[in-house]
């Protein structure tokens, strides 16, 4: 019986040899792939941190621009009003000049 058991075991090993080899090959492939994926994960995490830093910097710049804008808005409104005053004065001066020229030709 012992010889028969040994023969059966050898037959079982031979029968399962291809499946065992495939499993080992798959395991080795997964080990290599795991290293690659971990490296990709670390790179992605570094990139994510870099992008977060860029977002923070952009938010700081936006806040700075908003503060500058709110500081300059009254000056801008005053400047626009002054421009319209000068434009109106220029139009009135042209109308006055036109009236004087027309009165000369009457």
Estimate the strand proportion: under 5%
The low-confidence runs, each spanning 5 or more residues with pLDDT under 50, are none
Order of helices and strands: H
Shape: rod-shaped
Total of helices: 1
Q: Level of helix content?
A: over 70%
User: Gyration radius, to the nearest Å?
Assistant: 43 Å
User: Would you report the number of β strands?
Assistant: 0
Largest sheet: none
Terminal Cα span: 143 Å
Which key features would you list for this structure?
106 residues; mainly alpha
Describe this structure in words.
- The longest helix is centred in the middle third of the chain and has 103 residues, at 2-104.
- With 106 residues, the chain is mainly α.
- It is 97% helix and 0% strand.
- It has one helix at residues 2-104.
Short description:
This protein has one helix spanning 2-104. With 106 residues, it is mainly alpha-helical.
List the helices and strands and how they pair.
Blueprint: H1 2-104
